[in-house]
């Protein structure tokens, strides 16, 4: 059985699973208050903690392996993918904002941007309010490429969510998505969670 998997704000395609992936920017978890103190892990068995660490490793390994195969055909790497993803999702992103998101050096970003700009995937425009700013936008070619890379990753995410045990026939499949989002948000440093949720809300607002 297949259905349409939608991704804000452009992608729509059929996959072999029956689930929709709406964007749900969770801001409650990033509310005010003091950051939680660092707690020592208490698992019933040490292997439980090791299992989680290794599952995260292997999940990430295979999650990035899907687009890696496509990127290799173009002579690109994961750094190109990250830049392309965020420029595509946040048109008009500044160099400073992108550096803050990726946490890489300006020299490293310049090398990657040079490749993507010279090959026609990203274009730079001068800021309207501050002409010293360089605003980044994906070209039509870049948009199509970003969607191609996201498509394979969204298929993997959708299959993983569908594979989660269901408690009953009337369960909302979106609960699995919300649970996964909450877990991943909690993995982020407490002081960074509000920044991340504001960024994601910005994309959701633009897509509305």
Automatic annotation (TrEMBL):
Its lineage reads: Bacteria, Pseudomonadati, Pseudomonadota, Alphaproteobacteria, Hyphomicrobiales
Entries under SMART domains matching the protein: HTH_MARR (SM00347)
Q: Which InterPro entries match?
A: HTH_MarR-typ (IPR000835), MarR/SlyA-like (IPR039422), Tscrpt_reg_MarR-type_CS (IPR023187), WH-like_DNA-bd_sf (IPR036388), WH_DNA-bd_sf (IPR036390)
Source organism per entry reads Methylobacterium thuringiense
Q: Which Pfam families match?
A: MarR_2 (PF12802)
Q: What is this protein called?
A: HTH marR-type domain-containing protein
* UniProt superkingdom: Bacteria
Does Lipid biosynthesis show up as a keyword for this record? Answer: no
> Does the record carry Cell membrane as a key word?
no
């Amino acid at each position: 059985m297949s259905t349409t998997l939608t991704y804000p704000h452009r992608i729509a395609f059929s996959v072999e699973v029956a689930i929709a992936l709406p964007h749900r920017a969770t801001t409650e978890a990033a509310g005010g208050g003091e950051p939680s103190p660092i707690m020592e892990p208490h698992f019933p068995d040490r292997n439980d903690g090791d299992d989680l660490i290794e599952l995260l490793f292997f999940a990430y390994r295979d999650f990035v392996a899907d687009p890696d195969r496509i990127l290799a055909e173009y002579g690109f790497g994961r750094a190109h993918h990250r830049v392309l993803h965020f420029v595509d999702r946040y048109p008009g992103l500044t160099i400073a904002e992108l550096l803050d998101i990726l946490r890489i050096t300006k020299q490293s970003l310049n090398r990657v941007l040079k490749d993507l700009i010279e090959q026609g995937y990203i274009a730079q425009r001068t800021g309207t309010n501050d002409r010293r700013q360089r605003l980044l936008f994906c070209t039509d070619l870049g948009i199509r490429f970003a969607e191609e890379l996201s498509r394979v990753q969204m298929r993997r995410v959708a299959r993983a969510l569908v594979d989660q045990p269901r408690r009953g026939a009337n369960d909302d499949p979106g609960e699995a998505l919300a649970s996964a989002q909450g877990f991943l948000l909690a993995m982020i440093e407490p002081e960074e969670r509000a920044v991340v949720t504001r960024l994601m809300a910005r994309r959701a607002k633009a897509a509305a």
